[in-house]
Design brief:
Elements (H helix, E strand, L loop, with lengths): L2 H32 L6 H9 L10 E2 L6 E2 L8 H32 L7 H22 L6 H17 L16 H28 L10 H34 L7 H23 L4 H24 L11
Antiparallel strand pairs: 1-2
Helix pairs in contact: 1-3, 1-5, 3-4, 4-5, 4-6, 6-7, 6-9, 7-8, 8-9
Length: about 325
Amino acid sequence: MSAEQLAEVSDLFVVAAVLLYVVAMVAFAMDLAFGRVRPGKAVAKSAARQPVAVGASGADVLPETGSTSVPAAPEPPRLAAVAGTAGLVLAWVGWVANLAAIVTRGLAVGRWPWGNMYEFVVAISFAAVTAFLATQLRHNVRFLGGFVMVTAALGLGLASKIFYTAAGPVVPALDSYWIAIHVTAAIVASGLLTLAGVTGILYLVRGDGMSRLPSRADLERVAHRAIVFAFPLWTFAVIAGALWADRAWGRYWGWDPKEVWSFITWVAYAAYLHAKATAGWKGRAATIVQLVAFGCLLFNLIGVNIFIDGLHSYADVD
């Protein structure tokens, strides 16, 4: 296939990924809306260890042994169970389509496919879904599915409609092996931090209207773990960016807007982790700090490239 045909195939894979993510979002929403209420881990474990007095309300005495039995929690409706499974399957298929879009774009341009804003957003959407699916393999975080899917679908939609750039060469400053080191680390970290940001937003809005979500303690735990994994990667990306800047422009630091906001983002997440580790911050206060850091990340990834002129103004957005 020619480069032009590969680029067209890549665009079709992006459209397919958007559609699959949207349908997966609907399936996850049905699972969350009609499935069984998911209690927090601490509450569930405490309830499991709690002794039940004979004759207590809700407990039945077994005539043979005199012991008691507590009625099991009702199973989720079959529709919700099927919808949840379908959501995971669709998310994986959408993930494959997203990956195929990245691979075919790379083959079309003959380089690492994140040299402009369009390619970068497509890659971050893929990283966010990857973070969710990888976490789901070890922990049951299916409740996040719908929210991650809509985030990824919106990201791909913005990439296609607003940030789209025809396949072609990159600016000279990006024509380096450092793009595979610095930008890849930033993409992976951004995917994890996006997962944490979505979870943090759910923490704040959880209440009577969102009671089917896990407890706030569990939501905070998921966000914190994602940030713990992402922060070293973001640190490495900042350092690698400085090394690349020295090679490309002859200096490690030049107060370029992208450099400044990358550092501000690093400081914000460092403040969150420091507050959690030393001051014992938790709950709403820690979540607000985390979301402020997430806002810095979003502005650094999108706002700086579009609205501020600098050496990193290579978004190619008209």
